Structure formats: C-alpha cells, structure tokens
Amino acid sequence: MATRRRTVVLAVLASSVLCLLPSFPGAAAARGTEPVPYDARATEVTVDGTRFVDGYGREVVLRGFNVSGGTKLAEHGGLPFAGVEDARKAARALRERGGANSVRFLLSWAAAEPARGTVDEAYLAAATAQIREFLAVGLRVYPDFHQDLFSRHLFDADSWYQGDGAPRWVVEAGGYPREFCGICAHWGQNITQNQTVKDAMRDFWTNRNGVQDAFLDTAQATMAYLAGHLDPSEFAGVVGFDPYNEPYAGQYAGGQDGAGWERELLWPFYERFRARMDAAGWQDKPALVEPNMFWNSNLSFMKQPGGLAGLAAHGPRYVFNTHFYDQARMSGFFDLTKARDGAYAADFAAVRGRSAALGAPAVVSEFGHPLTGTASDKAPSVLKGMYQGLDSGLGGRAWWQAPASAGPVLSATQWQWDVHSGRHQEAMNGNPRKILTEGDAWNGEDLSAVRLDAAGNPVLRQDARLLDRLYPTAVAGRTLAFLYEDRSRDAGGTQNWSPVPASLPAVAGLVGTELPYGVLVWRADGGRAPTELHLPAGFDAAATTVVSDLGTVTGPAAGAPFAVAPEPGGTAARRLLVSGAPAGLHVALVSAAPATAEQRGSAQRELVRWLAGAGFGQG
Questions:
Q1: pLDDT digits (tens, 9 = 90+) for 306-322
Q2: Cross-strand partners of 485
Q3: Which residues of the chain have pLDDT under 50?
Q4: Is-contact 451 421, C-beta < 8 A?
Q5: From 412's CA, which of 16, 60, 390, 512 has a CA 20 to 30 Å away?
Q6: How far apart are CA 361 and CA 240, in angstroms?
Q7: First and final CA of the chain: distance in angstroms?
Q8: How far is CA 616 from CA 110, 134, 407, 551, 567, in A?
C-alpha cells in the first residue's frame, strides 16, 4: 500500500511539473486552456528496433485502411479516387468513422510510366494532391506500388479475370502468349496456375528486358516528386514506402524454394529499391518490405517457405510488412465455421516472431474478409478475430490470466476504404460490354468498409464498434500488454470474447457486458509527452470511465492525469491523454460505461492488485 501511495504522490508531482511544460502535444489540453496543437514531431515516425517511435520517442501503433482498390481500375486513371474532393471526403470519414491514424496509399506503375522511360508527372501531381488530403487530417501515409497478377495488359478483353500493375509496354516487350488459367474458381489461382502470369513475374525478378530497372527508375522519380512537392511538415507524415505488393517468384529456378528465392532475388531487389529511396531524399524513412506472399497462408497446401527467414537483422531502414487473410474461411468450403476467441493467435504470433527475429517493426498492411458472397456471414467474427490478434497474442479469456505473454500491439491497415464501392463504372479489361459496377469492380471482390449513401456521404458497411477502436496510438514508454473488447455485433448478438474473470468482481461490474472496454499496461519512461489512445466516436466523453493506478475519473475532459482532446487534423476524432506517469509500471482501464466514485475505487484496488501479480516484474 505504501508503494501505491508513493506512486500516486509521484504522479501528482509529475503532473504539476507537466503543467509548466507546454512544449509536448497534449499539454495544453491537459491544462484545459487551449486546443492541442498540430505537432510535426508527434507525426513523424522512425524505426527503433522492433518499434515505431515518434519525434518524442513514444511508441507508435499505425492503424488504418488501404486507399484504395480503385487504383487497380482504369476508371480513375490509376488513382484511388475520382478527384481531390472525393479524397477529402474519404480522408475525413476515415479519421472520424474509421478511427484511423494512417493509410496505405496505392499507386499504379502503369499510370506512372505509360511509355518506357516517360514518367507521367500529371499522374504524380494528381496522386500527390490526393495524398495531401490524408496528411491534412493528421493521417500518416505510406505509398505502395500495387500489383496483382502482374498487369491488366496480360488479360484479353473477354478474359474471366483482370490484373493490375505493370504498363502495357512491359507486357509487349515480354511477347507473352494468350493467358489461360484452366479451372480457376478464384482469381488468385492465376498466380500459380496461369503460365503467362508466372512468366511475367519471373521476368520481372530476373530483370529480363530491363523491366526491373525501369520500375526502379520510375519508383525513384515518384519518390523524388513526392519529396519535392510535399512541404516539410507534410513529408513528415509520410512513414515510408512499400516497394512491391504481394511479391511472388512466378517460377522458381531449379532446386529453389520460396526462402531461397527471397534471399537470391527478392532481397537484392529491396536493397536496390532502398538505394533509390536514398537517392530520392527518403534516407530517414524505411522501406516496408513484403515476403513471399504465401509464407503465412493458413491453407497448408498453399503455404511456402519464406517470411524473409535466414536474412540478417533489418536495422532501422526496413520494416517487416506482410498480409494475412483467412483463406480457409474465405473459400466457402475449407472452413465453414465462424471465427472464435483466439482464432488467429498463432497466425499473428508468426508475424510477431518474424519481427523479433529480424529486429524490425511489423505491419500487417492487408487483412480483411468479403462483405458479400457465400462466406460473407463470417465477416463479423473473422474481422473481430483479426483485430483481436493484432491487439494481443492471446485470446480474450486467456489475456486476463497471463497478460505478460500478450506481446506487442501490431500495426495494420485493413483492406479496404473505397468510397466508390458499388458505384464503379469499370470497363473490365477495356471491354465496353463488361461494365463492372458492384462491389470493388475487380475480380468479384467486395471488401470495402465504406460506401457513399444516396446523399453522397460516406457510411460504414461494417459495425462501427468493430472498426473505430480504442488502441494506443502513442505510448510514452513501452507497451507491455493491450486488450480491447469491442463487443461488436454478429447477427444482432453481442460478441463478448473477453469477459473479466470472477476474481475481479468490481472490474467486471464496472465494464458490464454490452459496452466496449480496453486495458493498457505499459512501462512509462518518465518523459514529458503523454500517452495517447484513440477514443472511438462511440465513447461518450462525459460517460467514459478511466481506472488506473494514476487515478480514476468518469467524464475526462481537461486536467491531468486524464483528458480528452481532438486528434490532430481538425476533424471530430478524439484521443484520450494520460499524462504525468512517472517511470515504471502502469495500467489504465478505459470503459464506455459511466461509474460512481465508489465503483471506480473498488475497481482500482482490484486492478492494482491484479497488476502486481500479473508477471510484469517490478515497476
């Protein structure tokens, strides 16, 4: 008890000192005297071991969406949006309704280099203008040169499938025969069954006809353009660059497997790309490099060696960047069940393991599930399970028993955020007789979390409780464990996967069974900047309850140690600030349910006792 009193006294003293130090983001809001300033130091992200950190040294988690699959289409000239106004509308909605702090912004090689050696600066200018709209609302951005099935120009006007990526001139230089997939029930089968696609992929990695050189030239020109046309405060919000979406060999050389291909061809490509980043003025930003796309498939017959295993530690110039889809449940026949608590713990443990082995942060830059079709009934549970796996390496029931085993919170961007969902006018493979309007307008997919309503306003297509989440956006120290029970709905019922154990009756009574709650355990570094958590729109600030070793409150508004303040960027999005935490171990429970002082006090005593015995070591 004496230890807890000393902690509280230290917190009060630290809070008093913080009131005299307005130089960190959130200090003004903690005093309640003026809005929180937009601060470039809080926006910039660098790599520190296996963590992302901001300019204040705080541990950062990147969460958001891909914008957008519209880049795959010819409809908008290889841009995610029809124009800047649509990008502005999408960015604001993504911030306010999607709870995002970052986006993966798709770019098209075909649009950037329509003729060999000719970079289309009009396209780069249009892409930059759309990127700027996301930066303007405080979102971090990392661009991605996207491809699927190598190129749309591999496919004939009457083909069953379509691709995206490489320009027409690349395909013409390859001299490929008419493509044919055989019996392919899903577009992805073209990757391993369509010989034309396989040949084109192989040619890129072996630099046949100098096509890889041309790609790198265009990538460098694109990065130089962005660096030169975004002002320094905007460029600070650019995290890094994803060089190549879902790389695959196409065909392995004799005796080669996925891991060998990564070492012999993929990694040298990334080193070449890294050099182009440096030449373009991106020296301080990492390359977000993807492994063999099949390394972590959850279908055993598709899984291949890879994951950049066996390579030296990445260092601060690279990020381990991977995708994860539940292909078994997406298939509609390999797994007919819905996801349950802890369904993806092992899959995301593999991501955390690769991050640790490579000494680099991890980002899951694509995950998601179809919202229409035969497997769409599984979407509410699959997405909940994936977010649970990103937040923690444990299932919800196990988390309270062994939180010290939860592992780091993973950064991720969901596929996808397309405001044109269901409204496309895409001539498939240029065929005017095949105008695609439904879903993503691409190979029958429909994964966008958003659409426009009849009035042209963005609305969510998934449960807001699932998408707009509580998560630690900036932690002054190290996150040791995090749990978020969103209590999202599936077929009208509450998905409650993280019940508080009976050994914590006051905590269980405080959080109830219907409203969302989260718990953050962190080891503070004693720095001046506050710890921040994104506060979902569904949390009424006046009713939000915070219970921590640092204090308790219902209705945090202004003042240390807890305050609610706007997210940077001038939208209605908000963050919860926790300031004045002295160096050492801390816990904060955040609930959407109001509570009396007596309820909070009882829950605080239980939570502090739980923390002491949870296996985190000494404070």
A1: 999 989 888 999 999 99
A2: 517
A3: 1-37
A4: yes
A5: 512
A6: 13
A7: 14
A8: 51, 38, 12, 20, 31
